[in-house]
Queue: 4 jobs
Job 1
Amino acid sequence: MFEGGLVVALDIGTSRIRAAIGEYDEQSKLCLAGMASVASKGLRRGVIVNIESLIKLISKVVEEAEHQAGRTVEELWVSQSAYILEGLNSRGVVAVRSKDREIRKIDVDRVMEVARAIALPMDRKILHVIPQHFVVDDQPGIKDPLDMVAVRLGAEVHVVTAPEAALDNCLKAVNRSGFAVRAMVMDSLAASCSVLTHEEMDMGVLMLDIGSSSTGWILFQGGAPWKSGHIPLGGDQVSKDLSIVLKTPQESAEEIKCESGCCWEDLIEMDEPVIVPGVGGNKPIHVTQRELAMIISARIREMFQLIRDDMDLGRNIYRLSAGLVITGGGANLRGIAQLAGSVFDLPVRIGNPLAPTVENKDLGPEWSVLMGLVQYGDQQNPLDLTDIRRQKVGISGNKTAKKEGGMASAILNWLKEFV
Ligand SMILES: Nc1ncnc2c1ncn2[C@@H]1O[C@H](COP(=O)(O)OP(=O)(O)OP(=O)(O)O)[C@@H](O)[C@H]1O
Ligand SMILES: [Mg+2]
């Protein structure tokens, strides 16, 4: 039987841990062979707080995906919560060295080295360095400067940094589950690979990944990330609000939100009553769907306003010709696109990822990070110039892995992917 190479993804979320196995077929096309998810434990706001629980869950979810795929896996592409990450822009300039002043790979390598040399606190390290564009002499906006003639080469990059301890804990958890880490990828960056189109990234788009404990945002322009960040609020905050206001256990509030919740009143046609279980033997009460919507929309509106301020919408609105894309489990909330449209004053769509199956199945937005990791791995885009796994783990070699060609090939891969 044909056994193609594998790309295995692990999305460690605060509410669920998800794993997917992509397998190359005889035509070298990646197809989804297994996919599983388990309720998460051991994380708070994307940060590991109980490593033992996490280890068990990682083993469980990957084994389940292995069982479906009928394959055993060795190394994983692993998500990192935007909650612990920080994005900033940096730039560098170097003189072109060659006599004929043609820009070579070595010049690109050097300018990227200079651009990534930022002052970092001792406890943080660089997770991604993504080129936004190159400046060839005074000409900005160049995607591929190789072979151009110039005196100076500049690069503007988006750098994502992470706390070293959090990365080490994640690495330890995956290793102790019996797997190696192929690379770690910011969750919102991974999600963008599965839900954004190249045109949107080029024209300028804002993507929100509404998870359970936090919401990551990432702004693309000119085909590359321009700004990224997060707010410490996600879908669970809405359930907490409902639980407090309606005096019901949080599990019931979560169920009510998912089944009857809406954050745009105009969508409610029949204002049917919803039964809310009481706490500790108290009698259930009835609320209307409109009342629910009032509680939910207040919180979601506040979250959108925080993101709008955090990303400085006023200054960046001209960068967003392609509007707003919302993904993550929180994007399942009814009316969220309408509410976002009114707060951001942008066209909005929900980002549902396509699973790489024969019929390209449409999945819910909660699968976008996982599917994005599979795509990211498929493209073998070694944006992770720190390549954390190499520092600690001996990798026995991924069957699908092509040789990594250092920084320049990282840039070229990035360019190939998004130009
Ligand atoms: N139908 C629905 N309506 C409203 N909210 C929903 C619905 N389905 C899921 N959610 C919410 O989505 C959130 C979970 O999203 P997701 O699975 O993307 O989070 P996560 O990746 O585990 O968390 P994080 O990214 O914060 O670590 C939960 O808060 C859940 O209540
Ligand atoms: Mg998530």
Job 2
Amino acid sequence: MSFHFIPKVLHEVLGLLVLPVIIVHCFWNWKAFKSSLRGNLKKKLSAIIDIILLLCMVIIISTGICISNHLFNGMIDIKFQRNIIIHQLHVSVPFLFMILAGIHLGLHWQGMWQRIKNIFKLNTSKISYKIVTRLTVAMLIVIGIYGSFLDRVGDRLLMQHIFATDATQLPFAEFIFIMISIFSIYTVIGFILDRYL
Ligand code: HEM
Ligand code: HEM
């Protein structure tokens, strides 16, 4: 997502490296996915999100390869490399992916957090811990909403042609913080869905 901040060739390399990470992640969670398909409403929702996430990733990486200026330059038919729909899909679908990945993480938060607590023997019953957590979540949500406007997430999802946004003009660290905050909004939504379903 940091296309504007890193060397373009690095964007392509990192983008391709996401593929083995996702394959390992899916392989690792294959059994859980199969049981989700036969489970209750929450599990089925989870499985549908998994499938859409995978589809998004296939679209992002295959369109990336088509429009590549470095690693695959000259290997792809110019018709595909210049195709405006392929370009727009490549720059819009990552935002859909980010939203759904946030919900996906939120749906699995409780189980994951329980394991982290056990591994690091964290004591989360203290009142100070609860206050800090709630304040952090509130801050991330506020910055995430502000960041969504700053990076024109809605326009990006509507596949509008956007060259740069106020967010992409920020220093890299601030941009990353904004992206994490946007991601957090959807993690909270996934967490709430998990509780109520
Ligand atoms: C997980 C994988 C990837 C993600 C999330 C991703 C995300 C993005 C995003 C968000 C942009 C647009 C930035 C902006 O305009 O604000 C972009 C641009 C671009 N990406 Fe990727 N990318 C990925 C993989 C790849 C790969 C594998 C390639 C090539 C091999 C690639 C090539 C490009 C190119 C050439 C552009 C410029 C597009 C244009 O000017 O229309 N990307 N990418
Ligand atoms: C193409 C993208 C992805 C796919 C297809 C995918 C697929 C899956 C599947 C099938 C599961 C098993 C449980 C279930 O049925 O939902 C799972 C679990 C999980 N995923 Fe993903 N995932 C993707 C991306 C991500 C990302 C980006 C994150 C983190 C930001 C993430 C975090 C997790 C966590 C924390 C679990 C629970 C693991 C556990 O409790 O052992 N996933 N994922």
Job 3
Amino acid sequence: MGLDLVAIQKHLESERAQLLARAIPPPELAKGDEADLAATAQAREQSRWLENDQKVRLAQIDRVLARLAAGQYGICATCGKPIPSERLEAKPLAILCITCQSQSEKKKK
Ligand SMILES: [Zn+2]
């Protein structure tokens, strides 16, 4: 495999550190008039969405780092077949081969 696992690990660890640095609780929101309240509610929604997104991303990174540590990076977590390196280059967080990925996406729907 032509993958640079050390580079991938470093990249993931730095992204993980960035996510953790950003995952600070939203600042205490100031009291205001109606318009401010509406804007505040929107901002709160947005930050909640961001938090969830960050959590999902962090969980994905942790999962991939664990697989790297276990020497299982690039091996499909479902069928155990190697994931093509072109796929990993495009999607470094992929832990499933294309076949298993599309099957799990079908199940979700
Ligand atoms: Zn698979």
Job 4
Amino acid sequence: MLLSRKLLIFLVLLLLTSMIAFPTSYEEGPYSKGNLLSLVVDFNPKNVAVVRVLLGRFKRVYVDGYFLEVFSGDRRRLCEGPLSVSITSHFKGIATCTDLGKVKEIPLTPETHLIAISMGPSKVSSSRRSWKTPGAILIKLDGNYLSVVNYLYLEEYLKGVVPYEMPPSWPLEALKAQAVAARTYTVKTALWRRSKGKYFDVKSTVADQVYHGMQGWRSSTNQAVDSTRGLIATYKGKPIFAFYSADCGGMTQDGELVFSNKLGGEPAPYLKPVRCIHKGRTWEVLLSPDDISKALRKVTNSKVLGLSDSGPFVIVHTKKSSLKIHKAIFRKLTGYKLKSSNYHFKGSMIYGYRFKGRGLGHGVGMCQWGARDMALRGASFEEILKHYYSGIEVVHILKLFR
Ligand SMILES: [Zn+2]
């Protein structure tokens, strides 16, 4: 009874999210001060041309820029930069900047939002990282941290992502395929987080995609972004889960098995395994009986007697029963000691197991080394994408609104 009610709620939620999550506009404006302030204050979750990047959660942050001004969430002009914000105690903080030449202190509460905008890019620094980035900067208290969110246009965001996801010296068609994959990943992730009411769309780390701002801009990667402007990969008219990894080792992995938790029940037949032109680097790792037992403790309480190799699966024999675990999941359980999900193994629970594999990374979706090799042999970015994501179309985002 309880289960069926849960199932019903889940189905209703799924229906609602698929309705809300669908984009309805793609509007970019000029980076004027008034427009930048509206980007934050009048944020429209249906506009996928704007992306909210969580630069990080910090104890202290410093923002500067050319003619930097600071506003509150209700558009009141508070002061002018440079702006320094720090946490003072639990759920409290303080911001310092100047107002009419005098140093002004603004106490922060969870309700206070600070919006910094400048003419040109802003410089944001924390003790760990710094960015030079276009768009507006929102700072707000989040528990015992300051959340710093950069509101900017998707295309400019991508210019600060692509050079960190693929070497800028690689062939242009591979970089263009990477730009489309990164754009699609961003749109898909943004729509999902917006449907859940989150205050940001993507993280600036490997958790989503590494974003370093304008420091990283390179002419080749900018060209890859500009020449594919607005293009995303879709399946049956919806943006795909555009996973990509460094080196699949000769064959990509089944995304529906590896990332079932990330797909939210949505079918992803375009993430089926395909052959890859790039053979991949080989690796070898020895895991002790202790390593194996420790890794499997998360899935079984029973004593592990041995492992056997069965295609894409690891069969775990325990005192009670046998478990079938996908090699990608097994890799995760070992704390990523295995370099990829493409491997074979031999051994015993007396001497340990020797794993021999190919590739680097989860292996789902586009293989970056494979994309490079295909581009070197004359493939276009569209051919590369259609090879790794079966049955997809590459379309302009605007086509989704009809
Ligand atoms: Zn590959």
